Amino acid sequence: MLVQLLLGSAITLISLTGAALLWWVLNEALLLMEPWLRRPPTPAKSLIVIFMAVLATMAMMTLGVWLWAIVFAQMLIFSSLEEAVYYSLVAYTTLGLGDVVVPQEQRLLGGDDRRERLSDVWSYDSDVDRHSAPRTQGATQFARLTGEPTSAPMLMSI
Is-above-0.85 flag for pTM? Predict the structure, then answer.
């Protein structure tokens, strides 16, 4: 049991380090683009920033899924790399279909896989919020009418 917990913690640490590096790269790219982003808004700016955030998020998630899949395959928990990738992806999406399961003696690793995905997703919001443009008066009024929190970012006003 202790070995599984240590291994799961090490894999999570590696994955989160990779995610932190990806967010750092995104942050640096946005800082370089800041003078351009502060000019009057255009649809292209919003599209580019959203695309960069989505691309970084997808890369981070792909890294985590493949890292867990490779570990599962190396430990011979699944009969093929394809099955390991499938399990890791299903665990990531928290669907838990049950058609592929981790053996009883390795069940703690399966839980670590799901826990890591949740921490990856929760870390997404904070970086994008910092680079969102301030709300315009109209966007703030719209937020009040719709009940949306006024502190939430409005990426479309970039």
Answer: no
- Output the DSSP codes for the chain: -HHHHHHHHHHHHHHHHHHHHHHHHHHHHHHHHHHHHTSSP-HHHHHHHHHHHHHHHHHHHHHHHHHHHHHHHHTTSSSSHHHHHHHHHHHHTT---SSS---GGGHHHHHHHHHHHHHHHHHHHHHHHHTSPPPPHHHHHHHHHHT--TTS--GGG-
Grade residue 127 by pLDDT with cuts at 50, 70 and 90.
very low
Per-residue pLDDT tens digits for 48-67: 999 999 999 999 989 989 99
- At CB < 8 A and 24+ separation, what contacts does 53-58 make? 53/26, 53/124, 53/127, 53/128, 56/22, 56/23, 56/25, 56/26, 57/124
pLDDT in tens, 17-47: 999 999 999 999 999 999 999 999 888 898 9
Please compute, for residue 143, the number of CA atoms within 13 A of its CA located in the half-sphere on the CB side. 13
